[in-house]
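[User] I wish I could look at a protein chain and see how it folds. I have put the entry right below:
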Amino acid sequence: QVQLVESGGGLVQAGGSLRVSCAASERTFRSYSMYWFRQPPGKEREFVATIRGSTVMTYYADSVKGRFTISRDMNKNTVYLQMNSLKPEDTAVYYCAADPGARPWGGVIDIGPPNYGMDYWGKGTLVTVSS
């Protein structure tokens, strides 16, 4: 059973930057595809970014492309989401999720909310962007 713990959320002004982290409990996470999702207030959970385990390829939602960067540190069993040029509409609870099956990310998107077919979820960290 993989445990995921997010951290690093907080309050930031529009235009600012923030990095959230997701620490995994097991080294086997290295082969997993890792995802960041977010759930804005009153809205459904949505895909943000993913990083593959084997190839370290990355994919982003159009709304964050060019502003957010997902990365992983295999030695620390940690995935990061660096968020730059933040906007008020980025305000959300940010969740980390793991897919041991490394399915195509398009298929994950097709499954949709709330769980997108993910096997493991963290409890989330709140990011608030003030205008």
User: Anything to note?
Assistant: The mean pLDDT is 93. Residues 105-111 form the longest helix (7 residues).
